[in-house]
Design goal:
The structure holds two protein chains of two kinds.
Chain A: H1 4-28, H2 32-55, H3 58-75, H4 87-103, H5 105-108, H6 116-119, H7 132-151, H8 155-166, H9 171-178, H10 182-209
Helix pairs in contact in A: 1-2, 2-3, 2-4, 3-4, 7-10, 8-10, 9-10
Chain B: H1 3-17, H2 23-34, H3 44-53, H4 59-68, H5 89-97, H6 102-118, H7 126-147, H8 151-163, H9 172-192, H10 196-206, H11 215-230, H12 234-257
Classes of the chains: A mainly alpha, B mainly alpha.
């Protein structure tokens, strides 16, 4: 028997699919506003939870997002609603775009690296664009492990990572802040990344061994 | 950095904000998408024409066809035929004098032209109003991009106008006028970008059917002269400037008589 939460979720999904079908119908007739609304509803989740984890590079993920919606615009007439809406179709197109980018990586010289595998053990369910709470929860789980891993490495490494990744400072700024040359900062950061990764792997492995409640 | 290091680096970046898409980037991507052709449900022959038109390499031919004839020229007389507003004297004086406010006056006149065409009989048909609205919006986006110095965005916006063939029921003169203006704007953008050869190509396409007696042809002639000058063809440039001046003076004379 379904719970009250299941009922609420089913109702919300039904409303979302109704909203979506109406816009897809209008977008198929050339209504740009309807297309823009579909984009605004799904671009963020597709970028954050599918494309960026598959590509690991913001610019590449933005390009893949643009290419995905370009294909949607051009081939919306081919979309077949199988009762679960447009999201699975978007994910499939986006995944293909990301794979294409990995295939041409050697030619374009782009530094792409999927980190989907690192997040996988922390995911409770496939990404759902309508479930903002689940997205926040996934982010919190990842951030929790990141914080634990950072707590386990030495202060200098932790500082280098915080400056570069959380404060998004330029390498020159980071080096000045730490009182070293830029090339020394680069070496410190590389070592920091490797120390962090050892701790991350250890924590995730330990969590995987714990019995699930 | 190894792939493993890149993975770690990307994970740390993602953990900062959960991979939030920056609003300015999201907006820029959407704007780029909105310059693309809308999903269409045309006839089979129209589909193949559209696919051919959007194949990139055929762009030059499209502009030439849209300007000098081809599929557009074969259209029956259209219900959207109606008077294009007379250019204001201030704009014509600005064109003759090449004054600083010329771009602004051209923009205002362009808006008047789009407004007039949108109000013409028959332009409420979805295919006609859709194409005119697309051209008007692309033009406005280009104005915004040019004001911000974003030449690439401006180029992308204007190219949508010349890449998307006008529906068959848009009056051929209206379509040619809009495409002529777009070709002139693309030439200006290429001149600003320091690419006179590309600018020359656009002006040649815009003027392929000969210069009409309108301000858009004047703009094309002046841009062609500037492109030729930049390419070291000063003597040829003079012919374009003289022709532009003649048209401008004739237009000014007529406007003053009115």
């Amino acid at each position: 028997m379904g719970t009250r939460r299941d009922d609420v979720q089913a109702h919300a999904q039904g409303e979302r699919l109704g909203w979506e079908r109406e816009r897809v119908g209008r977008a198929r007739t050339g209504d740009r506003r309807a297309f823009a609304e579909i984009y605004e509803a799904y671009a963020g989740p597709l970028y954050a939870r599918v494309l960026l984890p598959k590509l690991g590079d913001e610019r590449a993920a933005e390009d893949a997002l643009s290419e995905t919606f370009r294909e949607v615009l051009e081939h919306l007439d081919r979309f077949e609603d199988r009762g679960d809406g447009i999201w699975p179709w978007l994910v499939r197109i986006g995944t293909n775009k990301a794979l294409d980018m990995h295939r041409v990586k050697s030619r374009t010289g782009r530094a792409l690296a999927s980190f989907e595998g690192l997040m996988e053990p922390l995911r409770s369910a496939p990404p759902d664009p309508a479930d903002a709470a689940e997205a926040r929860s996934e982010h919190a789980r990842v951030r929790g492990v990141v914080d634990n891993a950072l707590a386990a490495i030495n202060d200098r490494y932790r500082r280098a990572i915080a400056l570069r990744y959380f404060e998004e400072r330029a390498r020159e700024d980071c080096a000045r802040e730490m009182g070293v040359t830029v090339s020394t900062f680069d070496v410190v950061l590389l070592r920091a990344l490797r120390a962090f990764r050892r701790e991350w792997d250890a924590i995730v492995e330990a969590q995987a061994r714990e019995p699930r409640s | 950095m190894t792939d493993r290091d890149l993975q770690t680096s990307a994970l740390l970046s993602w953990s900062r904000d959960g991979g939030a898409l920056r609003p300015d980037r999201s907006k820029a991507i959407l704007e780029g998408l909105l310059t693309l052709p809308a999903p269409k449900t045309p006839t089979a022959s129209r589909v193949s024409w559209l696919r051919w038109a959007l194949s990139g390499g055929a762009l030059a031919a499209i502009v030439a066809l849209a300007v000098v004839g081809g599929p557009a020229a074969d259209r029956a007389a259209s219900p959207t035929d109606c008077a294009v507003p007379t250019p204001p004297v201030a704009l014509l004086r600005a064109q003759v004098a090449r004054s600083d406010d010329l771009a602004e006056r051209m923009r205002d006149y362009r808006q008047d032209v789009f407004g007039a065409l949108a109000g013409c009989a028959g332009s409420t048909e979805p295919s006609v109003s859709g194409w005119l609205a697309m051209a008007d919006e692309a033009s406005a986006r280009a104005d915004e991009a040019l004001a911000a110095g974003r030449l690439d965005d401006a180029r992308r916006a204007i190219r949508a106008i010349v890449e998307i063939p006008a529906p068959g029921n848009v009056a051929q003169d209206d379509a040619r006028l809009i495409v002529r203006d777009a070709a002139g704007r693309l030439a200006e953008i290429e001149l600003l970008a320091g690419r006179p050869a590309d600018a020359l190509a656009w002006t040649d396409r815009g003027l392929a059917g000969g210069a009409e007696h309108d301000v858009f042809s004047v703009a094309l002639l002046v841009s062609r002269g500037r492109a030729k000058e930049a390419l070291g063809r000063e003597l040829e440039a003079v012919d374009d400037y003289v022709q532009a001046q003649r048209i401008d003076e004739a237009l000014l004379e007529r406007a003053l008589e009115e």
